[in-house]
């Protein structure tokens, strides 16, 4: 066991490491009165010893299903699914494809400089859940209280120093109207920030920052909002091309998921109803589901709706649902008065889905990957239960389970408590020691951040708070996991119970 030994010298106390499996106690003889500097160093050593003897948390199960709200599956009779990043999980090749297609459209449609074709995609630059400030041209990470995470603010590919960030925003906390807009009477205003909350936005952010960096380095003046809109429109308008490319070679772009069919079969065997609502076109979905589930995949679903145009599908009330003729690749104009198994439907609204099926309220559990456009309205307006499929969860949990991460996280919490307990010392030699502790704390925080993503850290938390993305996830999802197949481990009568969280005034935990 590695322990820390106090060594008392004439002028100092220091910590050294030694290995002694039988070490139970360490005695220290004090030959003179300590200086305050010595006392602080002794407190540091004792805290370090305590940290090293502390048992590290058990690993988190990467295939777990995690509860934000209590969810009793015995109340659920109807299971609904989104397609992209919910049933179909894409390989990194899809991000490269979207980036390259968007880059070409920037050149051809918007007349951007030909040199941008040399800008290669950086797959590990951005994470989802970030905000883009369309006024200031910054990509940044906010926590659940709308505080900026310093060290996670970028202009192009270049990190913006914290002092410059404070000059730009005047405060670390961003007003909610700036982030979300203000819809109050007589004060309607548009948000100055865009939340990039789906995985399709990751290559979009990569292209945006690459082009911005090119403009900055070549002293080309640009308007941040125009650049954002051009990139956004370019990537989104490339989706039809992407659909065609992926449908022709699903093996290259979609990860196999052989247990998906088993999950659908389990639900069907337990007399559950299944439906699919996706924004993607039928030929694209059909090609993917053929590979993932089999040519008979539609036999599992009681209702299939494509080109749903979410979130409008969940918010509008008057857009008609129509039958889609897959042979003619167009919709039929006749009025739909019932929803039949085996028929493909087009557009429509959630109101029509509920009216024509009788499915409503807590009997419906809907899975999607976007906490807002997939889950918010069905939770708030229609009382559905919701599950979020968060692909990044596997990487996040595997990182949490690293031994070095656990040690750093443990020591960070204990070092922070040590600083808090001794921060009122004011002599110069005391302040010098405290400054060393603060520098070590800053180093640890950045180390913990960088193992998730060097630029922006974890999708789920800033240094100590949940991210803005996490806030929406926890608000609108009853359960979340990284893959639908993980639900196979649970019966259709299983109840998911949320963990009791620790509030600031309750019992402390060194590992949060």
TrEMBL record:
The active site is at 82 (nucleophile), 84 (proton donor). InterPro entries: HAD-like_sf, HAD-SF_hydro_IG_5-nucl, HAD_sf, Pur_nucleotidase. Binds 1 Mg(2+) ion per subunit. GMP binds at residue 84. GO terms for molecular function: 5'-nucleotidase activity; metal ion binding. Pfam families: 5_nucleotid (PF05761). Keywords: Hydrolase, Magnesium, Metal-binding. Mg(2+) binds at residues 82, 369. The keyword Chloroplast does not apply. Its cofactor is Mg(2+). It comes from the Eukaryota. Belongs to the 5'(3')-deoxyribonucleotidase family. This is (diamondback moth) hypothetical protein.
